[in-house]
Write a structure and sequence with these properties.
Two copies of one chain form a homodimer. Chain A is an alpha+beta fold. Helix content of chain A is 26%, strand content 28%. The first copy, chain A, has an eight-stranded mixed sheet. Chain A is elongated. Chains A and B meet through helix 1, strand 3, helix 7, helix 8 and helix 9 of A and helix 1, strand 3, helix 7, helix 8 and helix 9 of B.
């Protein structure tokens, strides 16, 4: 992204007609998000950048490309997405988002950074100059999410964050948890200062704050948020000088709330951007990516130029990159969507940094075959052998039953609630109770650091036999496993160890389905996005054989041990009461 | 401007009510330029920054200040002003602009930088922590304006520019001349790359460009301009992704043009800021500074919140400092205007970085007495003694008259036009011709470098006797002198030498008025702005004694030798044809 002398000189020479442009796109209607107009224009391109949009320019071009009267709009920007929680590698992600017109993905690699630490950023950016879209880095701050309450593979130190902040590809310090601000953790405040002092911004993540807390949070220099669910929360943020990222992901769908209220009450969209936060590839395929946000906003009554501006120039200005992208104007990268309608945007062509990257329903650049470095493919290690005995839970001496406080899952939610149950004791061990739908759940530390195995019970998973396991328990990314017997739990965890990460379903000691996620234990190496989708769906199907009726059992599994998701979070270190961020005892001692 | 850990922690603690704020402004109507609302609020302040604007916050404050129901709006930002062409030092400037509500002045020190080079920036910022307003640096690029066509005191190199760009106080690379872009001068293109690559912007100055040239100019990464005089020029800039600085200075008054057209044609003000460029202190006193732009826009039909936004948050966002100022929101500096009306903004109080700096018609902070460093007070040096003989102009041998091409001044304009005249020759010397209003004009090199004295004739100054001289001939800042006889010209220049810079009027060998400008030969050391105004007016009066009828004779004088102002520019090195940037001969050789 650095601007160079040679590139700039070449642009100027092209613009003055001294040397020819590479090509000109003609016969098109330009959506100018700077002047907020649509008019007939040409787009002259040299190398990666736009030379001119002047229909009457006396310029030469080596090729003329007729756009058949289509609209030309700037490539879309997703202002916040967790690329590394999608299981998709950056190369395969291209197949999902580029056909939808996304040319910039502002990515927070928080999940995998908890495994690998800072070096993951370089790995994810390795193909930055070959990918048909741009990854803009939001430096992960939740590494770890809950220090002292979980074992993680790595942390990102102040010095490491500073180094990533200094990279060209970096646009911000990523979503920072309120606890890290409101409890004034110096390392995190220092990271904020460093980001602001090098001219970059700080993204918010103000879940569960009171207005007064939100205000204190904003005062630290945090200038956006994507966590507003109610209109009042959104308005609070606007009033405090924070931009609202209007989120429309797979689960969290906040767009209608914001758009309908803003239109009804007469608020401007000037301080808004679009994001998805988390969106499954099959949802992107079915309904779209950021173009879905744009289309939905238009359907709700936002005028198309404004909706397109939210997805382009608004984000570019907010991230302070508008000299480089976000509009189709001279000097900016040629990130261009060509489409027939601006009421329902379905790209016919997508151009990225001057290259045609999507056409006729297909990504038009070669698939990138790559081998990830060995260290990132080898992140699952056990300090001690995993055996069924590790999953036994002794009862207090002399008890024939025990009372426990455990998480009860809530349908279609990632939050759980505290549930008090009485469980039987047999041979001195606390037992499952299928009659109450209470199964054993464990978090197995998988960085080879301490061999922790936290054994718990969970109500409501609906599993009846066998076991399911996954090497991504948010956000410490230890192995989470839930099973009807200790042998299958042990077998499932061992299979994950053999695969070096992934998803497993075991029944009667036999692996009936598995999906390897070898990049950090979280991400697939598969180059075809659609194959990854198929594998995920097959894993969900396999879980049905255990009796589980949840629609996305592995995703549910991955959130049970999340120390920032209420109310209870069993980690490898203990049972966390999320509200107090303290450990509590699962088994009541009388 | 660096954000520090301690300051941030203190803000958070205040915001959570753990420690008291310094004070709270209450009973006020907050103009929130982020949500575009006006509502009743409180402003809690700790140190330099705003803690909270929540009227219901459970916070404590050491003092409560009742604002009697006044409006509270963010301090105004002048997005571009030539502080060093005003003759006023930064300390005295406070008395002019702070009472009008300006708390940030984006200053291009191009004029004095041509004398002193880069070190002037530190001198101008020396009292930055004491001044009641903020100087934001736009790194001067026109140093020199016309290399090879003028002798200047200094240049700013690529390395020096890079150093200034890295300073906290710097917001941009300053207005860059089109010639430096369109002729691809590598040093200047490199400065642009450096500014963009460190996250700062580049200001435009696209005088006299065709649309195609403007487009090539914009493609270099220049994202604003203040030089649009016609609506079509403004619209061109908006379409090219440049922000329009709506200028309303002493001479250039472009605001009604822009505002009336934008309102009539339905264009947004989102990509606009306000500036004055050049505004005399007596004009600021009489009609206002940026508040005048705001008030005039409102009078023309812009709604007050929008007009105030242009003067505040729009500029802050454009310069990428909106996390620090431009709105009254938590974490931003407490730069606050309190006023009774938002239709005609006349501040009753002004607060800057938490300090009350204006109240009851008076600047409320102590005047800053300072001594400028000796090197900047000693910038007028002659390589050889100045004598009347230096102003003689020999005719070609054997001629009884000569034909000359000379500048003819145009009333109320800084541009001139080529005029061909026949002048008498006496004793082998070319003579003045009072009958044609043609007097002698000279540029005397004053850096002690080469002793150049360029001697010319100029038509239209209306001087009949004596001589006037000024040590600021734009932008090389050599001494310009115009007189009815060579003896008075010599005397005037020598007086400037004795004063080490300033303005002089001489009649019959006697100095009848003078005004010292000892800081770089351009700026007064006087601490009272109003005394500077008095002195300027007295100098203009003194020029009348010479018979001159021009309203601002010294300003006119200072633009005659400007190599970027059409059509002819006599410099110390020769007569510049501004269009071709080549020297031409004044005296025609047959």
């Amino acid at each position: 992204m650095k601007r160079t002398l040679n590139e700039t000189n070449t642009l100027i020479d092209c613009g003055l007609g001294k040397i020819p442009c590479d090509y000109v796109l003609k016969n098109l209607k330009l959506v100018n998000v700077c002047s907020r107009e649509i008019y007939e224009a040409k787009i002259f391109v040299k190398g990666k950048r736009i030379v001119s949009i002047d229909p009457d320019a006396s310029l030469t071009a080596e090729r003329e490309i007729d756009c058949d009267g289509m609209y030309a709009l700037p490539g879309f920007i997703d202002s916040h997405m967790h690329l590394s929680s999608s299981m998709i590698n950056p190369e395969a992600m291209a197949q999902a988002i580029v056909p939808k017109g996304t040319t910039t993905l502002c990515a927070d690699f928080m999940e995998i950074a908890n495994v690998t630490g800072a070096p993951v950023v370089d790995v994810m950016l390795e193909n930055a100059d070959k990918l048909p879209y741009r990854i803009a880095i939001e430096v992960p701050t939740r590494v770890p999410t809950a220090p002292g309450l979980e074992t993680t593979g790595n942390i990102i130190s102040v010095e490491e964050a500073r180094k990533i902040l200094s990279m060209d590809a970096t646009v911000s310090l990523g979503e920072i948890a309120p606890a890290k601000i409101l409890h004034r953790t110096d390392d995190n405040i220092q990271k904020i200062c460093d980001s602001l002092n090098c001219g970059k911004i700080v993204n918010g993540h103000a879940v569960g704050c009171s207005y007064q807390e939100l205000s204190a949070y904003a005062s630290a220099g945090i200038t956006d948020d994507h966590e507003q669910v109610e209109w009042e929360e959104a308005l609070d943020r606007l009033r405090l000088g924070m931009h609202v990222f209007i989120r429309e992901g797979s689960a969290e769908r906040n767009l209608p709330m914001f758009v309908e209220n803003a239109l009804k009450l007469g608020y401007s969209f000037e301080n808004t951007c679009f994001c998805t936060d988390d969106k499954h590839v099959h949802d992107i395929e079915a309904e779209g990516h950021i173009n879905h946000n744009v289309n939905q906003a238009i359907k709700l009554g936002v005028d198309p130029i404004t909706a397109i501006s939210i997805a382009t120039i608004n984000a570019a200005k907010h991230f302070r990159v508008d000299q480089d992208y976000g509009s189709l104007t001279p000097g900016r990268y040629a990130d261009i969507i060509l489409c027939r309608s601006i009421e329902d945007i379905q790209p016919e062509q997508v151009w990225f940094e001057g290259r045609k990257v999507f056409e006729e329903g297909k990504v038009a650049v070669e698939k990138i075959e790559r081998t990830y470095p060995e260290w990132i493919r080898d992140t699952v290690h056990f300090k001690r052998p995993i055996t069924p005995e590790l999953f036994r839970l002794p009862a207090p001496a002399g008890k024939s039953s025990v009372t426990v406080t455990i998480p009860e899952l809530i349908k279609d939610q990632i939050v759980n609630k505290k549930f008090t149950a009485t469980l039987p004791v047999k041979d001195g061990l606390v037992m499952r109770d299928p009659a109450q739908d209470i199964m054993k759940f464990a978090i197995v530390e998988r960085y080879g650091k301490n061999g922790n195995v936290g054994v718990y019970f969970v109500k409501g998973f609906t599993l009846e036999r066998g076991a399911v396991a996954y090497s991504m328990s948010h956000n410490h990314q230890n192995i989470c496993v839930l099973g009807a017997n200790d042998e299958d739990m042990s077998a499932a965890v061992n299979e994950i160890g053999r695969m070096k990460g992934g998803l497993v379903t075991v029944i009667d000691g036999k692996v009936i389905a598995k999906m390897p996620l070898t990049i950090g234990g979280l991400i697939s190496e598969e180059v075809e996005a659609k194959n990854i989708v198929k594998q995920i769906l097959a894993m969900n199907e396999s879980a049905k054989v255990t009796g589980c009726t949840l629609p996305a059992p592995f995703m549910t599994l991955s959130f049970i041990g999340h120390p920032a998701v209420p109310q209870l979070a069993p980690t490898d270190m203990g049972l966390v009461d999320v509200a107090t961020q303290q450990f509590i005892s699962m088994i009541h001692e009388e």
